[in-house]
Amino acid sequence: MTLWTSAEAAAATGGRVTGDWTARGVSIDTRTIQPGDLFVALTAARDGHDFVAQALEKGAAAALVARVPEGVAEDAPLVIVDDVQAGLEALGRASRARTQAKVVGVTGSVGKTSTKEMLRTVLSAHGTVHAAEASYNNHWGVPLTLARMPRDAEFAVIEIGMNHPGEIAPLSRIARPHVAMVTIVAPAHLEAFESIDGIAHEKASIFDGLEPGGVAIWNGDLPTSRILQARAAETAQLSVSFGESEGCDMRVASVRESDGHSVAQAVLDGGELLYKIDAPGRHFAINGAAVLAVCEVLELDRALSLAAMGRWHPGAGRGAHVTIQLDEADPNATLALCDDAYNANPASVAASLAVLAAAPVQHDVGRVSKGRRIAVLGDMKELGPTGPDLHAALADLDATKALDKVHCVGPLMRNLYDALPDERRGLWFETSDDMAARLPRQLDAGDVVMVKGSLSMRLARVVDAIRNMSQGNARDDAEG
């Protein structure tokens, strides 16, 4: 299906087009570009103009550029604009203007990507859904996601993030959501904000881009909920709160975790909604209530939404649960792994630790007779001067006190390591590579292991090391 013609790209961007072409997709990376894509030569860590020739060689339909790059013919298929970033934003706006899709915007300190994927799953029960495959939520990710939107999409889910003040509102105004959601406000990116209230004001600015008659959905369980509520009242036709607190419009009355699932009951306008999620975690259940609130305000079939919710499960690095078979000859010799290694801040770590503390373990199946709950935690980044104290404070959580061992990675996590009592203190290493080399020896059948940290800590290497235990690579020296 044609996504962009040369004439449409010229009209959208105000640029000069060479050649007559059609594009089936939009790409910013020659490593993943597909034949027929429009290549956008963004300038970030490297200048995308240096890769235009390669993109065309790989079959790109055309390239969006600010100049004709060296080595590229003058008559090559191009869209020449004054500024490539502005050109991409123009494509995003034009795509948004022509679509008939209902657009949902999602932001939050925690859970925006998993909630985006939950929305993708549930809305897919009602029609065709467009959403980014990755966390494309920044100044280029949002317009890129919009520019890639198929003409026939019935729903679009746009994730919007930030690192500094003033980033969310402009992106929301490009996306123009019919429904905008704030999952949670938590200490994250504190280096760029003076307080948690500052973060709340920034998150609430997603409501500034709402379409006329739009709906604001916001977390009603927070110390900063009043800020979200006030902004919603200013910008939205309808304001809907969700959470466990009395007074929430979509109130989660109960959450029960068992057998790797969560079963929750929510109340909306006096009616009850019972739903299941294919993952343990109260935080997933509460965000699930927000997703169901989206479906309600869009007047979608409730039975289809509830059924689709039960099919959602988190992806790799987002809380996915994996069973590791340690001995092919013994089906009971398994280890449970929670891969939550993609991101971390105090709120998300606390939520994951609560899931781990409640997880069932197996006894008398390994060298260590008692199955254990084990956390592997990496540094939480961008917390500013409060970072050391916020790391150390994890030791005081009830969930942490319910664990058997906590292993720590990174200089900031040294603060937690030092705050732990001796019986709970595991290993500490500066790098994930060192932890990956040593951790498997500490694990055994029957254990439940959760790995979580900021992406830059590269804890995926620790996850891979645990996964590789199924190949018999771990030595026989697990601790008792």
UniProtKB/TrEMBL annotation:
GO process terms (BP): cell division; cell wall organization; peptidoglycan biosynthetic process; regulation of cell shape
Keyword Cell wall biogenesis/degradation in record: yes
HAMAP family in the cross-refs: MurF
Mur ligase central domain ranges (all copies): 106-295
Source superkingdom: Bacteria
Annotated function: Involved in cell wall formation. Catalyzes the final step in the synthesis of UDP-N-acetylmuramoyl-pentapeptide, the precursor of murein.
Entry's EC annotation: 6.3.2.10
Ligand binding (ATP): G108, S109, V110, G111, K112, T113, S114
Pathway participation: Cell wall biogenesis; peptidoglycan biosynthesis
Pfam family, one: Mur_ligase_M
Cellular component, GO annotation: cytoplasm
Gene name in the database record: murF
Subcellular localization: Cytoplasm
Residues of the Mur ligase C-terminal domain: 338-454
Enzyme superclass (EC): ligase
The protein, known as: UDP-N-acetylmuramoyl-tripeptide--D-alanyl-D-alanine ligase
Gene Ontology molecular function: ATP binding; UDP-N-acetylmuramoyl-tripeptide-D-alanyl-D-alanine ligase activity
